[in-house]
Amino acid sequence: MSKQPVTDRNGITEEQFLKTYDAGVYERPSVTVDMLIFTVMEREQNNYRKLSEKSLQLLLIQRGEHPYLGQWALPGGFVGVHESLDEAARRELFTETNIDNIYMEQLYTWGEVQRDPRMRVISCSYMALVDRTALNVQAGDDAADAAWFEVSHEILEASRRELEQGYEQDQFIKITLQSDKVTLSGVVKVTESVQGHVSKIQREIVQSEGFAFDHLMMVQYAIERLRGKVEYTDIIFNLMPPLFTLSELQRVYEIILGKELLAAAFRRKIADRVMETEDFTRDAGHRPSKLYRYNMNRASNQ
Amino acid sequence: MSKQPVTDRNGITEEQFLKTYDAGVYERPSVTVDMLIFTVMEREQNNYRKLSEKSLQLLLIQRGEHPYLGQWALPGGFVGVHESLDEAARRELFTETNIDNIYMEQLYTWGEVQRDPRMRVISCSYMALVDRTALNVQAGDDAADAAWFEVSHEILEASRRELEQGYEQDQFIKITLQSDKVTLSGVVKVTESVQGHVSKIQREIVQSEGFAFDHLMMVQYAIERLRGKVEYTDIIFNLMPPLFTLSELQRVYEIILGKELLAAAFRRKIADRVMETEDFTRDAGHRPSKLYRYNMNRASNQ
DNA sequence: TAAATAGTGTCTGTTAGACAGTATTTT
DNA sequence: AAAATACTGTCTAACAGACACTATTTA
Fold first, then answer.
1. Who among B23, B103, B113 is closest to A83 (CB)?
2. Which domains does chain B have, with CATH numbers?
């Protein structure tokens, strides 16, 4: 239909236009990707009859250069002009973990003008979920500056103000990241407001100890997203090894959701998301547990 | 704690570093924002005793320049180096609608290398929801090239292939946009796959009639997001006028969700999201209906 | 009285939460 | 037997879907 050359007001066809197009000299922001790579690790118990505890871990890199020299940042890097955002993210992911097939999703793009003191940088954040048992090589073996940090977070304080045409609500969320050697912590204020018909959410770092850039805010956002998606999708299985017990699965739900679940209700709820196998755990110091695998072939996994 | 100057391997402090930092000459992508501005409009009925039908509308701009000259695109524009992404989005929003206080949220950032034939452009898409009655000036009055299009979409075909380690599932979604003068339509293929432990979602435009760039994909994504969020947040009230009947509210839910709802269950469900007023509709040709307003002051509106 | 929409009452089946109880293993 | 976890049965309350019914207005 529109195959005969369309010409613009100067009588130029699209082909001619593109041939002579000059991308111009406007100043442009730099674009980076930042990766939130999560996994679940086990902490050995001193009482071997007890189950090992699990924790959610995030990979951070200690900066070796200005700015924020010595502080911890999310792994990431600049997006080249000849690679897509997803390709840049996969490249970074592979650089850090040495594995290729990892669950990854785009989270949010951070575009405040002053978020990087060097220059204008817009950063697109991605979340990746890795099964710890697939990390054959400990990530960061080569990079002595990378480390896994246990993630914990709590709501310090929540307040609410009624306004004439709505309300405004603050949450102060304390995030603590703990590695073998360092403990980092900071507070993000999340403000939710409704004014007339306009609702808004704003984030602000109100305290930060050891985090580079605005990365603490990205961590808070990612935890929020992970929590949300765990309830209505199957992404949690990206954090699980191929075989797992229902108790293990329940623990992982619990650490992500930050609350305890009742075993009976939990089992009913996830029954159709998993498949029984013939295998059991062994040498557990107590009754063995049946092993399950993810059942990806059920009716709907929206 | 870290207030004494930290110096890098060359003995340079952060302050000195930033003073002499050269942003460099690496090629950089351009960054744009693209706005998905939705509203709900009423179509007059020929039988005045019947209720007017509602429809979801999207604002598009007809391109007056290459590339895609004459085709329809989302309103948007380049992000300046001295404005944040949100600021750029608000600026575009104001340019198109002449109103300032509009609900807006970031959706997704599109970063394929070839998405713009001129040069490398990364585009951050935002969704905005406007109450039609707040559009005092018909948007596009000044810009003769802007028009509201009624949005409809249907699943043409869905197929599923079982793979060794999972499955792959396609949905062909047909999107039709209809204005006073033009009808545009296209098909987006959404592929969801699970391979071992890695799940992925990919989108592809398989047919497109009159849409510029990859904007049809953005439309599909936005509809999906709107549908999702309508079920677990209160964003729908951003599309409603200050006073509305429960039937009207139900219609808007129905056109967004694409299915009919039962009045009794619907009223129970939204009971605590709305507040009764003393007013009624008038001159309706049938029993008047009580008017409600959004109740933003309830326990939790997550 | 008919047409049209507004609004309510109630049955039914499903599901989440709570909790008590049973089962199986190792020390 | 004690310690530890695995797993099941059942009661209850909440809630969504279905559908019939009542209410109110105008032409």
1. B113
2. 30-232 (3.90.79.10), 240-294 (1.10.10.10)
